[in-house]
Structure prediction request, 419 residues.
Amino acid sequence: MNVQKAESRRQKAESRTRSPEVFCLLPTAYCLLHVLFVGCSPVLAQPNPEWIRVAVVRSDPEVSLQIHGPFTVVGRQSGQPIQEGTRLAAVSVRAVPAGIAFGADILPVSGIRVASGGEAAISLNGRRLRGTLEIVKQKDQTLLVINHIALEDYLQGVLSKEAPDYWPPEALKTVAIAARTYAIYQRYTKESVEYDVTGDVLSQDYGGKSEEKAATTRAVKASAGIVLLSRGRLFPTFYHSTCGGVTEHARAMGDFDLEPLRGGIVCNFCSASPFYRWRRRFTKADISWALSKSPRGSIGPVSALQVTRRSQTGRAQEITIVGAKQTVRLTGFEFRSLFGFDRLRSPSFSVTPAGDSFLLDGRGWGHGVGMCQWGAAELARRGFSAAEILSYYYPGTELATVRELAARPVEVIKGGLPN
Prediction:
């Protein structure tokens, strides 16, 4: 999660009942088992943990599609064939009032499914993807594109984006297990929406087949099917790039309070990270302009910026900005989102006024919850195994397998994510 990813994983898809056809793409998509949610009533089925639904496009009016091999296109609701062939040349797919424009053809449908045959990968906006695609027209005339893909194939496209391929094998296996567990947790808690995860840093960064690398693929295969549980229950294995010295309590991510995610894990192992310390300068005009473009609206010329509440680890929980028109208070996440998570790397920072600017001196990259990836890499270099590293960052946990999850009722630790 460069993870920021997790920064919030906030999936804002509308709840809706899916038609049975949605699962035609997934062999044995559902098991007739119970899944038990803490504090909730049991439901009669649990999803197949060996598959995942990834939203690779969420609000684009148009996408480009190409397949170098045999393919089929069918109606999402009807399942009726629309087009098939031995190769699909690059074609534009757009949302239009009458349905979906597939090149020059206007299809009177609300969605299509695209599958390739053999080893042919689907190219979406120039990025090659394994699995199949659902392209859905949304009410605002934009497209939602969902990649239905085997979990292990998905992880090959995630790990190469989430961890440098030159890290020690045990470090890569550690991240692979955390990423697999996080994906399955989302799979088990997102049944009322169209997809389980997004393909960006708000869930787990996903590059598809185009981004796969040999070393990270080996780590996925070496840890295949292994997940992490807390007292036999699934939980969200949040992780981040660099903690900067100590991990954060999971309440920063929502309504979570469980032993593996209570934070306070001292970690000096990430000191070699290029993101361990950083500094940013923001002018008052920068802040005023960013707010004017946000839902908060204009507050006029900015006169003051300060952190008015911090967590026990010192991370900013509330930032107060004083403007000529009004004073606003933002959460650490909201403040970072104003400028981008790459630019304002973590909520762990101090503020120093400097003329018409503010200097922010910070440490770490990401929300700080769960596993510190750069810390895990250093522990692996010191000879610790993936199991030992996971036990350090997620106390009181144990390893299990996806096969075990599919064979019994699974208890999932609930916790809401921030809005």
User: Anything to note?
Assistant: Residues 62-141 form one domain.
